[in-house]
Amino acid sequence: MLVHAAASGVGTAMIQLIKAAGAKSIAVSSSDSKLQICKDLGADYVINYKTHPDFQHQVMQITQNRGADVIADPVGASNAMRNVASLAVDGKWVLYGSLGGRIIENFDLGALVAKRGILFTTTLKTRSVEYKTELIQKLAKHFFHSGHGFKPVIEKVLPMSDAKQAHELMESNATIGKILLKYDL
Fold this sequence. Notes:
alpha/beta, 2 domains, 6-stranded parallel β-sheet, two-stranded parallel sheet, 7 helices, 8 strands
């Protein structure tokens, strides 16, 4: 499984979930220090997209030209064609964000069709509180309380009054893990 933004809160959780499921992960992030955290969390392979912007070549080398069975992608448009090139035949590209844009210029659908690739889109933003609660309970039951040693990665905890600072920190792309806002009653 190829994990983009692997040092993010979702990415660091995914690496651990992939490991717990007995699968292999390829973590993609923007710095060697972030990738070291990914390795420490269990990533099997790492790719720095700043030094290897055409990451698909490393993915194909790692997978012996097979490609990734699953790509977890919060980036979107800017990774589109490289994702298709990284995808295994019958692979699944799970798009859950658009940090790199929503509009894909000159996208060749034929390349995705040739691989019989599945593009699956999802988001938690539009899901109900009930859905999110059930999802958290399932994750807690199967992974968090299962003895797998799941470790949430927290960059910083800030008071709700510092929400602007939290957004600026997140936009800096210098964080590892989640930034939490604490609401004091």
